[in-house]
Structure formats: C-alpha cells, structure tokens
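To assess whether ligand presence alters the predicted conformation, the chain was also submitted together with adenosine-5'-diphosphate. Input:
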Amino acid sequence: MREDYEMVIGLEVHCELSTKTKIFCSCPTDFGGEPNTHCCPICMAMPGTLPVLNEKVVEYAVKAGLATNCKISRNSKNDRKNYFYPDLPKAYQISQYDLPLCYEGHINIENENGEEKEIRILRIHIEEDAGKLNHDEYGRGSFVDLNRAGVPLIEIVSEPDLRSSAEVETYMRKLKSILEYIEVSDCKMQEGSFRADVNVSVRKKGTTEFGTRTEMKNMNSFRSIVRAIEYEADRQIDVIESGEKVIQETLRWDDVSGKTFPMRDKEDAQDYRYFPDPDLVAIKLSDEYIDNIKSSLPELPESRKKRYISEFDLTEKSANFVTSSKYYSNLFDDAVNVCKNPKSVGNMIMSDIARILNEKEEEPDYIPFTGKELGTLVLLIDKGTISSAIAKKVLTEMFDGEEKDPNKIIEIKGWVQISDEGAIKEVVNKILELNPQSVADYKAGKDKALGFLVGQAMKETKGKANPQLLNKLFLEELKK
Ligand code: ADP
Ligand code: ZN
Ligand code: MG
C-alpha cells in the first residue's frame, strides 16, 4: 500500500442468530442436515403461506443493539427486498429498510498504534437468510438446499470508519466476541454464521471526500479478509494512478489466486423496490421491554477487563487478551475458581494456549477442556507436583488426547515431579561424576556451568526433577 493513500472501509456483518427456530416459521435452525429437511411451506416460499415473526429474533437483535451502544427503535417494521436468485424462491427477502431495529451505535477498538478508536455502527436490522446452492462438481447442474432459508440474521452495518485491514480484523474480532458474550450467535465463521460484506475505497491522504468503493461479499475468514483488502486497495490505487476510474461493483475474492474478480454491477436501493411486507405486523417495543433486555445482559468484555485489572491485578495486556473472547474469559474465571492463581492462569492462556491454537489454526471456541481442568493443571504446578516444563506437555495432552484431567494424565504418563531428596541426590551425584570439567569450571568461577549441570540432570530425569531441589542439591555438593 502506497504511503500517500489511505483506505476507507465499511463493513456489513451478517450474523446468524442462534434461536431454536427460524425467523418466520417453526423449522429448526440447525446447521447442515440432509438437504431440504429443515423446511416447511413457509420457508420454501409456497404461495399463500403466511410468515409470523419469531419474538426471540427481536429479543436477540435488541440485545446485540444494546451491547453495541445502539439506540433501539420503538417502532419498526419488516420490508421486502425484491430480487431474483435461485436460492431465494420467494424472489424477495424479508429484511428491514428505513426503520431498522437498532441504530446509531458504536464499539471501541484499540488500533495498531495502541490508540482507542470508536467505530460507529449505522444500523442493525433483522432479516432472513437465503438457501444455499450446491454446484455439482461433475457439471450436472446446481442443487438448491433450503435448510438455511429463513434462518434469522442480524446485519450490522458500520460507518466507513475503518482505515486499515488490521483495524478491520480488530473490529470484527471485537464484534464477534461481544455477540458471543451475549449468546445471540455461535459466530462460527467456517459455518457462515459470522460473515462480512467488505466495502473498500481508497483516497489520497489529506482529502476528505470518499473514493468510489467496491464490495466483496460473504467473506468468512479473517485471513482472506485481510488479504482481500490489501489486494483490492492496491488494485484501486493502480487504477487511479493510471488515470482511470474505480467502478462501483461487487467483486468476488479468490483465495487461490489472491485476486478479486468482478461479479456484478452494484445495485442501488431503488433496484430492490423495497416496500413494507403486508403479511407482517409492525414491531412496537415498550421501554419496559427494552429495559428488561438491558438488565438481562451478561457482563460485557469491557467491564470484565476492568474487573480483571482491579480484582486480580492482571496487566492491561493480559486482561485485554483474556477478555478478547468469551471462551478465554469463561475458561479463566472457572480456572481461577479452582486454583486461585489468576496471574498464572492468565499467562498460560496468553502464552501456551494461544500458541497451540495458533499452531492448529483454531479459534478459542476450539479449546477441548474445561476451566476446572485448566485450574487443576495450574494447581499441580503450584503444589510442586509437576514442573512448568511438564505442565506444557500435559497441556498438549489436554488438547490432543482423550483424557483431559491433568491428574490422570500425569498418572498415566508417569510425569509426577520427583521431589524426593534421596532420588534427586542420586541423579546429582551421577551428573557430577560424568562432568568433571563442568565441576572444575564452576569452582573456577564460571557460574554458567551450574546451569549446564542442572540441564543435564533434567535430561536424565526427562524433565521430572523438581528444579528448586535440583539447584539446591547441586549447590550443596559443589560447595563441598
Ligand atoms: P449497500 O451496500 O447495501 O448499498 P450502503 O450504501 O449503506 O449499503 O453501504 C454499505 C457499507 O458501505 C457501509 O458499511 C458503509 O460504511 C460502506 N461504505 C459506504 N461508502 C463507502 C466508501 N466510499 N468507502 C468504503 N466504504 C463505504
Ligand atoms: Zn419453515
Ligand atoms: Mg452492501
């Protein structure tokens, strides 16, 4: 990206709500299933059927609005957005046009320079998801699966306040984490329950007017989103620099070639001929209804972070990291309950657990053990039953093995730390005997030699010797 340009990005995030049933009928919202088994005449768009709005959808959307500092509309409605697409047999999507449920919100993110920045949310509206097309790989045609048709969505539209791909990723992660905390969605990106239309434009630094944007639809991996934004911004700069104009259009990002391709011209609102859905009643919300939802909200990440710093004395960095995901934060709370050692739990999440997830290219929701089990692990270190080196091995087992209970793991693997003085003394003597040079070095004032000897003893005991004891006994022997 050239230094004299800046990106302008706005996101339309689609998030599938985890209500039990669909938005306008009582079909299940479960992901997958045999094609066309989670459908009924309503979500299959049979003529003459009547939709009824699922109250839970309104509740979840209002929750999302309150958690993102939005205003909530007392009067709202559903509108038809007309377009033809094979996975939308009604030829219109029931959405919301001029009266979204929530509007004018914001969330704060910390950008690359460590500055707090407010990203404004223009609106959050409710709508139904479309079905899915499965394209036959042998070219025999395409198949329509309507299981997803009618699954409730909220669309969270940001103002064009984002200025880099890093900011986009931070914003999306924060938003995802908030939605997970308030339990309105599982936000599984690989299942498409959290995906974004990414609008990108570029402009010369110092100018105030926005450039023409392009839009990349349905992006559902952070890595692709970041790559696509970088590519698209560079492409637009090349277009402008060569004296041409960026065309407002919808693009498709191809992950394999790492390029964007035109998909279709951009429609304007009038192309959709929005109008109020005559089959549905207006949505009127009382103050009391909204207040009730407000008081049902769980503790949000911002407030948890403050609490971790004041109550547990975590560093800002550690508290930030642990609260970045509901899964981390709940794991932390449960583990601390068991071991009463918040610092160690925080460090273990931030270093070891994050590293393993990173290696596996997984997100925190993947963690296959409980906070109680993690707390037990920390307790085992604190009690001196295992060394922190062994703890790392136990943690790897907890990720990959069947057995999740650290006590059982160290028993099965025979990893209990050797804290028996007699046994350790034997090892110390053996190592001293085998390394006369190091002994001489140490006595000649080279303190490093001790580290080497301890290392050898650790190797000998496969990391099981109690390190404090080992040090102590070596020193005793060497001083003789
Ligand atoms: P739609 O795409 O449905 O027509 P809007 O016109 O409201 O909807 O814009 C959608 C998104 O595009 C918003 O998130 C907004 O922030 C973003 N956006 C609007 N103008 C620009 C721009 N010039 N550059 C980047 N993003 C923009
Ligand atoms: Zn149905
Ligand atoms: Mg759009």
